[in-house]
Amino acid sequence: GQNIDQPTEMTATEGAIVQINCTYQTSGFNGLFWYQQHAGEAPTFLSYNVLDGLEEKGRFSSFLSRSKGYSYLLLKELQMKDSASYLCAVRDRGGYNTDKLIFGTGTRLQVFP
Amino acid sequence: GAVVSQHPSRVICKSGTSVKIECRSLDFQATTMFWYRQFPKQSLMLMATSNEGSKATYEQGVEKDKFLINHASLTLSTLTVTSAHPEDSSFYICSARDHTGRYMNTEAFFGQGTRLTVV
């Protein structure tokens, strides 16, 4: 089966660094995505990891360890606008045209001044 | 990134009626589209996978006769909620994957979402 776990809520202070963890179990791993979602809006793509290691993109970085079934999203220099839900999603391999994204429960991050 | 357009963004309908939601890929061919449902403060739950020209694949627990999916062209998929009831009120989101061309299957692009309220 598939199982993706994230903390439900996190809080942090403006200017700080926060790390959001994601652990997963899936039968056919084919990549891990992080998305940001503001209330009432659709998710927006943040990062994609398919190989082990760290991917850095501006203030956001994402790390993957396939052997441990573990990823994290690191947000630096937090801003108030970073208050949102962060969704970890694993692409489950099912053959051509049948890969699908399975989403974790999402982590609601609240940034305080 | 690529653009996926979803329409309508909000709809209110009476219980027992049907509602159609459209999902269009505007600048790429989407051989696969996905339909999700999201309840308040919860994550996205995959309802079905839609492949152009073939029947949709529904996730366990999703009634295919209630949620009709049509993917007749490479740029359009529709979800019809039939005989809607208040418990169907939710945020419905589509996503589309580009298997050919620029984006090379590295991410799925999401529509803006549709807030359905059944009264």
Give a topology summary.
The complex is a heterodimer of chains A (113) and B (119).
Chain A: E1 3-5, E2 9-13, E3 18-25, E4 29-37, E5 44-49, E6 53-57, E7 60-65, E8 70-75, E9 84-92, E10 100-103, E11 107-112
Parallel strand pairs in A: 2-11
Antiparallel strand pairs in A: 1-3, 3-8, 4-5, 4-9, 6-7, 7-8, 9-10, 9-11
Chain B: E1 4-7, E2 10-13, E3 19-25, E4 30-38, E5 45-51, E6 57-58, E7 67-73, E8 76-81, E9 90-98, E10 108-110, E11 114-118
Parallel strand pairs in B: 2-11
Antiparallel strand pairs in B: 1-3, 3-8, 4-5, 4-9, 5-6, 7-8, 9-10, 9-11
Structure overview:
The complex is a heterodimer of chains A (113) and B (119). Chain A is mainly beta and 113 residues long. Chain A has strands spanning 3-5, 9-13, 18-25, 29-37, 44-49, 53-57, 60-65, 70-75, 84-92, 100-103, 107-112. In chain A, the strands form 2 sheets. In chain A, strands 2, 4, 5, 9, 10 and 11 form a 6-stranded mixed sheet that branches. Chain A has a 5-stranded antiparallel sheet with strand order 1-3-8-7-6, with no helix packed on it. In chain A, 33% of the residues are buried. By secondary structure, chain B is mainly beta. Chain B has no helices and 11 strands. In chain B, strands 2, 4, 5, 6, 9, 10 and 11 form a 7-stranded mixed sheet that branches. Chain B has a 4-stranded antiparallel sheet with strand order 1-3-8-7, with no helix packed on it. In chain B, strand 4 and strand 5 form a beta hairpin. Chain A binds chain B through residues 31, 33, 40-45, 48, 87, 97-106, 108, and chain B through 1, 6, 31-32, 34, 36, 41-46, 49, 51, 57, 91, 93, 95, 97, 99, 105-113, 115.
